[in-house]
Design a protein that fits this description.
This protein is α+β, with helices and mostly antiparallel strands and 367 residues long. It has 3 domains: 2-16 and 98-186, 2-Layer Sandwich (D-Amino Acid Oxidase, Chain A, domain 2); 28-95 and 190-245, 3-Layer(bba) Sandwich (FAD/NAD(P)-binding domain), CATH 3.50.50; 270-356, Rieske Iron-sulfur Protein. The protein is built from 4 helices and 21 strands. The chain has helices at 27-40, 156-169, 213-229, 250-269; strands at 2-4, 16-18, 50-55, 60-65, 72-77, 80-82, 98-109, 119-120, 127-134, 137-148, 174-186, 192-195, 203-207, 282-286, 293-298, 301-305, 317-319, 324-326, 333-334, 340-342, 351-356. It is globular. The two termini are 39 Å apart.
């Protein structure tokens, strides 16, 4: 690790910490290799299936929905590892120990030389820079625009700002793709990998990777496999799901959960002052607390669902960058029709109505 004063980049640079010999890899082939080895060793992978509940016993009993949602089945296991971003089981209260964050990336075709090293800014607004090889040539990847899930008034502005920044510093850049990701920040800055409750040795969690999943995910897998199989790795204590080191995060936890309480109250009251119908690519929660409704229009289709998150009763808000409903309490996400996209909720929003909008014939407003 060394301090450098200059860098060959087109954006302002005032010095930074350089970490040499870093690797860049495509995670999809890596995952393909993991799956191939798992199957070679007798394991299997079920895609599209969703675990709804885990019943403690000997053995554990998992209720799993089939990929086509046509039926549920019961799966038994000696051990269960919940590596679902945030644990779908509320026991252990991990939803109160991590904060969900959404951030955005854009890929651009850049004329001339491309910045090949990886850069991460330390100031605000955060920017991350890297490149990606593709069959159609290299792409510049610019990331940033992060916010707590469900608490951005206009998330689409974050994507527009990233594109504007990139074109400002890389003249002639043309956007080809954009996407978003969700990460969870732990209250004491360290991930959790261990039993879901102290003394519970059959249900395990891995969460709080805070955007460092490629490294922390592998470290969590090693820590958990060591605990399950009886191994010992001294460094794994830093990842303990229940440890005195969490005391260092009490202030952060208190602030985080006070904000959650505020968002809960605001969500039920604020819709009283809202009126009208959403425009194309938008969503709106309206009505009194006893008759709330969430309306959205995407690709000319007007959908109405209940805005009440089935996790702990928060009221969802609309993300106009992803065209999705987001719970501002603990980060559950839902499609416009209420389909569950991301937990900790284990089921979707209750649908109310769907019809083709008469005022939105111009197509999607998504960037």
């Amino acid at each position: 690790m060394e301090w450098v004063h200059d860098a060959d980049v087109p954006f302002p640079f005032h010095g930074g910490v350089r970490l040499p010999d870093q690797a860049q890899l495509d995670p999809v082939p890596l995952l393909d290799s993991f799956v191939a080895e798992l199957e070679h060793r007798g394991g299997s992978v079920a895609q599209g299936a969703r675990v709804r509940s885990v019943s403690i016993g000997s053995p554990l009993r998992l209720t799993v929905d089939a990929a086509d949602r046509s039926a549920s089945r019961t799966v038994t296991a000696e051990h269960c590892v919940l590596a679902t971003g945030i644990p779908i089981l509320d026991r252990g209260g991990f939803f109160a120990k991590v904060s969900p964050h959404r951030s955005y990336c854009v890929a651009l075709k850049v004329p001339g030389d491309i910045t090949r090293a990886m850069y991460l800014s330390s100031d605000s607004p955060t920017r991350s820079i890297r490149y990606a090889p593709t069959p159609d040539g290299e792409r510049l990847i610019v990331g940033g625009g992060g916010h707590t899930v469900g608490r951005a008034d206009h998330a689409a502005d974050a994507v527009s700002e990233l594109v504007h920044w990139a074109k400002q510093h890389y003249p002639g850049a043309v956007q080809t793709h954009n996407w978003s990701a969700q990460d969870y920040s732990p209250i004491d800055e360290l991930p959790y990998a261990g039993p879901i409750l102290p003394g519970t040795r059959h249900v395990w969690v891995a969460t709080g990777f805070d955007k460092w999943g490629l490294t922390n995910g592998i470290a969590a897998a090693l820590a958990l496999s060591g605990q399950i199989l009886g191994g010992h790795m001294s460094w794994a204590r830093a990842f303990a799901a229940w440890s005195p080191h969490e005391l260092s995060g009490l202030t952060t936890a208190l602030q985080h959960n006070l904000e959650v309480g505020y968002q809960m109250a605001k969500g039920w009251v604020a819709p009283l002052a809202r009126h009208g119908d959403p425009a194309e690519g938008q969503g709106l929660v309206t009505g009194p607390p006893w008759n709330l409704r969430a309306d959205s229009v995407v690709d000319g289709v007007h959908r109405t669902v209940s805005p009440v998150c089935p996790h702990l009763g928060g009221i969802v808000n609309w993300n106009d960058a992803d065209c999705a409903w987001e719970c501002p309490l603990h980060g559950s996400r839902f499609a416009p029709d209420g389909t569950l996209l991301e937990g900790p909720a284990t089921r979707g929003l209750t649908p109310a109505d769907t019809h083709v909008s008469h005022h939105a014939r111009g197509g999607s407003a998504r960037p």
